[in-house]
Amino acid sequence: MAPLRSLDAQGLPDLGESAQAEISPAAERRVGESFMRDMRWRDPAYLDDAEVEDYLNLIGGKLVAASQEVRQNFDFFAVRDTTLNAFAWPGGFIGVHTGLILAARSESELASVLAHEVSHVTQRHIVRMVGKSGQNSLLALAGLVIAVLAARGNSDVAQAAIATSQAAAIQSQLGYTREFEREADRVGLQTLQAAGYDARAMAGFFERLQQSGRLYENNAPSYLRTHPLTTERITDVENRVQALPYRQVPDSVEFHLVRAKLRAQLGTPEEALTDARERLADKVLAPGVAHYGLARALARAKQYAGAEKAITDARRAKLSHPMLESLAGEIRLAQGDATGAIALFAEARKRFPVNRALVYAQVDALSGAGRYQEAADIVGRELSARSSDAQLYRLQARALAGLGKQAAQHRALAEQYALQGNLVAAVEQLQVAQKAGDGDFYENSAIDARMRQLKAQQAEEKKLQRGGP
């Protein structure tokens, strides 16, 4: 993990609450947003993959919609880590390790863990843990997030932050209490059932996690260290599902495609290719999905002719999905066929117009081919619907640079950095934009106004760091 800011310099927003005041859901959300920006900007383990993230939010969205106790927005994201873990932050941020996605044997198993984590948030367990520590304050809440980061594993820097902050006082309480775990099981099970998933999957997945804990003894999966499983808990879940009607829930194609994509990134290219070929031969996966996984592995091994054949085979198997079309375009680009890739992306977007990965790929390919105005036009339309998308601002900056619009380019970069939590870099970009000299009256006015906003935000953060009101 890259260095995190120390707890006494978190740069958390001024929430207008005293140190001992009850923490509101809005305050929780802002604390979570601060850490989420920091993670996106600094932590190399954060998986910046639109396809994986959109899939997790698809499942998470179903669960949140089915929950009866949601008081805030939720965001689900992936962490590139082979260990079995998932974790919740204040304000509805749920992180999922790629290892957990791959360990799930069904989509309902994966959803069961997400439902459990969502329940920890809706029942406000994180805030209640801070309250039990006797430090019912925003600083202690931020400290608990640092403790969660440390528990992820291989996080020496986070451990150092704990040692020098108030988080040390609650590090020993990081594992949820039995009461909280049982409540998250009960509420999560209800949410899982209401969202249309197989509720029996929760008990099955938890039982396998417990078995793996016994197998590894002191090196148990990190999920077990922060969410201690007991035979009593598993039995309780099993008893609860007995009263529910049997439901056979098929996995979505996205579940299998995302797992195939993640598997293709494991080990060496040769190992990934061997695994993909074995899965195709075993005929466990649907043919289209198996060929997609093979195409991913072949592309990683730079065997592009074979990858294109696998794409064709996937289409013949009736697989029609934006992830397949995105990969097809990537393979064309890797072979130097930008024109072919752009044509593929354009055709795919007619069928899947709102898919983020296809938008990013299309705009990137257009700019790479020097077709900057087309790229800028597409980004402009997308930003009108998704103005908080940092990736779109990065792509916009690239297109504007190609068009020679320096003021607008650096203004776009400023928005990218601001969304990623790097206010210093954002202000620097706006200063460059002010000096560019090619902006019109409206552009320069917008730059000046945004500069005032960001400087005011910086001043508030410095005030908080000094412990001021």
Explain how this protein is built.
A hairpin with a 3-residue loop joins strand 2 and strand 3. This protein has a 3-stranded mixed β-sheet with strand order 1-3-2, with helices on both faces. The chain is built from 24 helices and 3 strands. The protein has helices at residues 25-42, 50-66, 98-103, 107-122, 125-132, 138-151, 156-163, 168-171, 178-194, 200-216, 222-226, 231-242, 253-263, 269-282, 287-300, 304-316, 322-334, 338-351, 356-368, 372-383, 390-402, 406-419, 423-436, 441-465, and strands spanning 75-79, 86-89, 93-97. Helix 2 packs across helix 4, helix 4 (107-122) packs across helix 10 and helix 19 (356-368) runs antiparallel to helix 20. Among the domains are: 7-242, no CATH class; 405-469. It has 469 residues and is mainly alpha-helical. The model is unreliable at 1-21, 154-174 and 215-220 (pLDDT under 50).
Task: Please name the defining characteristics of this protein.
469 residues, mainly alpha, three-stranded mixed β-sheet, 24 helices, 3 strands, 67% helix, disordered N terminus
Describe the structure concisely.
The protein is mainly alpha-helical. The protein has helices spanning 25-42, 50-66, 98-103, 107-122, 125-132, 138-151, 156-163, 168-171, 178-194, 200-216, 222-226, 231-242, 253-263, 269-282, 287-300, 304-316, 322-334, 338-351, 356-368, 372-383, 390-402, 406-419, 423-436, 441-465, and strands at 75-79, 86-89, 93-97. The two termini are 32 Å apart.
H-E string: HHEEEHHHHHHHHHHHHHHHHHHHHHH
Number of strands: 3
Uncertain parts: 1-21, 154-174, 215-220
Our measurement of the CA-to-CA distance between the termini, rounded to an integer number of angstroms, reads 32 Å
